[in-house]
């Protein structure tokens, strides 16, 4: 299996195949239910959780409104602390910058902290094409890399694997990447963790270049922050001589005081911990302490276009906690691979189509990968109204193709397809604007209900192929109201 999502089918097809995999569904059900239960308990301990959630939302919204100002402040702060800032408009530019920086060191291998931004741009593949090998050091990312697999969860990329599968991957693949797995390795968590630790230790001690992302960037000091649970991040951030961090421009917060809010909400929402075991911060370079050279690559890659959408921009508040995935009934059954993106689940269904556009088959299908139950909004620690954005993006898909710009206004080009849906909406508008016609249609429908099919023909097949056609009531609501309210035709 390829390590990238290039060529993935649209969500409905990929999800249909995933739902048929009983092992996958069992793994997902067990993991998501366990995580969501622990998260609920951790959040319940905080009496002011609602206030923290609102504070996080306001900080993010304020920062996004003034993103240009805070990014320039960040650049000044990082530079003053001895770091070097690079600006990347898209994935190709970011990959070119990082590849060049690694080549400048003369090294042919790098160690990596878990980074969704580098997965988003396909950095590992770009480095490999230039003869540079990237080693993932997060345990779950290591499993994915050794298994020639793709990540399927924001927090736990290998959530679709069980312990037996992980043992088999370690036993068969570790020797090709470095230190082999111990003889007689079992699937007990302690033995698997020890095998990974021994395998990675030689890489940590040998590597001269580290590559990271960041959970947050503090504009006032130029400080970057990574939170993690294993300690691998601390090793990658402190041992190499050169550190290169690739970070999305939305990951910025104005001050240290703002950071305090997220260091409370992120661990409880993600790992259900009161605080992360490892919270690593670094500000530029310091003689004799940590890397001697630090580069920060600020990545746009569709974020500025997303920021221009007044409804969709709230997706940029995301702090990558994955709480929305763990409560989503669609994700639980379909898994992360079906989303065809490094960002799976509800947040991926609104973030990927905005970063990549809705022109491709898979990105046009993602806004429909939801039942709109609202569970994702309820658990989001920064109050992203994911159902609202999903409906907004569905409108974009239906209304048209590419997004164009008219000054600061977003304009959607009219779509050629969806004629049947538009015709149905026009018919509904006509009927609801004519009470007499609506009354006659309702009564006719109730009298012919026995003749109604269980499935719809033509374009309607896609809708009834996975759900029952609602039964027509024995009488219209209007008739019921008149019969039970003394013949009155109006609701008083």
Residue-averaged pLDDT: 90
Number of helices: 23
- Rg (C-alpha, Å): 26 Å
Principal-axes geometry comes out as: globular
- How big a fraction of the residues is strand? 5-15%
Summarize the biggest pleated sheet.
Answer: 6 strands, parallel
Give, in spatial order, the strands making up the sheet with the most strands. Answer: 1-10-7-4-2-3
Broad structural category: alpha/beta
Estimate the helix proportion, in percent: 40-55%
Assembly state = single chain
Number of strands: 12
Task: State the separation between the terminal residues, measured CA to CA.
Answer: 64 Å
Low-pLDDT parts are 402-417
Descriptors:
alpha/beta, globular
If you had to describe this structure to a student in words, what would you say it looks like?
By secondary structure, this protein is α/β, with parallel strands linked by helices. 50% of the residues lie in helices and 12% in strands. It has 23 helices and 12 strands. Strands 1-10-7-4-2-3 form a 6-stranded parallel beta sheet, with helices on both faces. Strand 11 and strand 12 (409-414) form a beta hairpin. Helix 2 crosses helix 12, helix 3 crosses helix 12 and helix 9 (163-177) packs parallel to helix 10 (189-206). The N and C termini lie far apart (64 Å). The model is unreliable at 402-417 (pLDDT under 50).
